Amino acid sequence: MDTTVNVTLIVAAQEEVVVAAEQESVPPRVAAAAAVTEFDQRDSAWTTRSQIARELQVPDSTLRYWLRRRWRHMHHSRWPPQVVQFLESRDGLAFLHVVLTAAHLVFVQANDCGLRQLSWFLELSGLDEFIAASFGAQQKVAQQMETLLIRFAEAEDQRLAAQMSPRQITVAEDETFHPDICLVAMEPVSGFLLVEQYQPHRDAETWNQCLRQKLQPLPVTVCQVVSDEAKALLRQAEILLGVHHSPDLFHVQHDMARATSLALAGQTDRAAAAVTKAEAQTAELQRQVQACREQCPQSSSLQVLEQQHRQAQAAEAAVREQYAACQERQQRAHEAVRGLGQDYHPFDIQTGQALDENAVAQRLAGHFQQLDQIAAAAGLSARATQKLAKAHRVLKAMQATVKFYWTLLEVWISNWNLSPAVARWLREDLIPGWYLARIAEKAEPANERHRLRELSEKILARARSPTGVWGTLSPEQRLDLERKAQACADLFQRSSSCVEGRNGNLALKHHALHHFTARKLQALTVLHNYVIRRADGTTAAERFYGAAPRDCFAWLLDRLDVPARPRTRRRHA
């Protein structure tokens, strides 16, 4: 964002103040800065202050007061006179306005810096000579900025919705507590927050009312909801909205890990302690046998000690074997939980081949069966078995999500009226390539991320071969099909981690500020949607609406009050 443009606009507005001061109300500081600047430009040996005051339509006494105030400031400031003269001018006031607006937006609104810390910054920088740095003065600025942020989002939502293309979206939902109930709903592809507000209840009706209120003016249709298995969220999705509910993968994996990880880790730790104890016993008996051989080789005690040493060695081997078995069970359980995430895809992440719901369900069932076998071998408690059964019950919903993906995908492709060759090329090459590109961005560790990127690039290169379908398409058709393939790749949503992450971010902010007003929470939502940018430079609103919003900072500059002048300090005799 080019702040020079905004400074120019502010200066231009200040120039108009001198001409139209009687016609409209302007901030006194703007009028004073503009008048003093005009006086400096018009002052000469052939003009008087009174004459200039008449030309500026300002009382001579008022102009004299403004000039004397600047003169006193220049002679009692820690800043050089040239700096004071600049910051008391209209250009300087515009500069102070930009600095204070940026400080509030970045430090206070976006990064939870308290107002007292901002006042401290103004004092250390010496800007408190030109800007009122008290808590009350800065609190007024913060409150006005929060109100303006909300107004900006309301105006932009209305403007961008009017030019938005109709489409189907997924909604990820979750709630958090501050301790008041805060409902959070996000479109996971763009990261655009649809709902983020405090409500007295978190039942299905409240969820539905909040979501419909936001979506009513938008040309979008919810096709699925992804969340945990909370009854209210299930009812809202399947009954009130009448759409598919996709279970959150993390909660399934979390239940699997809770059922096995702690118990298996405890067994491994106890087995490791047993190995250490057995090693110590074996070593002690070995020392006794050696001492007996050296001191009394003919004693009958030697045979007894040797027998005990052999028994200790056998016991040590047994506990080592048990320790290895515990380690192996723990590793297999970890792989089963991790494997659930690796196999819960509509495409094989090793080859890029499409997988229907039955193939995916078979792979997922294998991981559940492996955990059941481990639990039986380890003799885990009934409570652990119940947790595994709870996670296992979600398998049907996961299978249904894959089926929903392929069903809706076929509906989309059918509605696009593509030729059979193009439709097959889209399913087998372009969509898998883009899907692998999407999951590569989130894959861990780094070597897996690199592997998926290479596989994605290989499949996309095959899809874009000039000797295939790609070569028969016009540039416009290629661009259109690329966008459609990306939309198809984004359709499969298996996680609500985006709202989980947002809830974590809100928790940190709440910990820093201790309390959110409804206005503050709305302002945080606006910052997330319209100010925070990804590495590619786009905001969530731009990705959601498909068009760039106006510059929020420039919008604030045009409407936020100019910095208040600090109160004149009394001089003591």
Written account of the structure:
This protein has 573 residues and is of the alpha/beta class. The protein has four domains: 1-163 and 516-573, no CATH class; 170-246 and 498-512, 2-Layer Sandwich (Nucleotidyltransferase, domain 5), CATH 3.30.420.10; 250-392; 416-491, no CATH class. The chain has 22 helices and five strands. The longest helix has 47 residues, at 249-295. It is extended and about 125 Å long.
Which terms summarize this structure?
single chain; 573 residues; alpha/beta; Nucleotidyltransferase, domain 5; five-stranded mixed sheet; 5 strands; 69% helix
Q: So how many helices?
A: 22
| Low-pLDDT residue spans | 1-5, 9-23
Beta content: 5-15%
What is the overall silhouette?
A: extended
Beta strands, count: 5
Largest sheet: 5 strands, mixed
What's the alpha carbon Rg, rounded to whole Å?
A: 35 Å
Largest sheet, spatial ordering of strands: 3-2-1-4-5
Report the end-to-end length measured between terminal Cα atoms: 49 Å
Structural class comes to alpha/beta
Mean pLDDT: 89
* Domains (count): 4
Order of helix and strand elements from N to C terminus: HHHHHHHHEEEHEHEHHHHHHHHHHHH
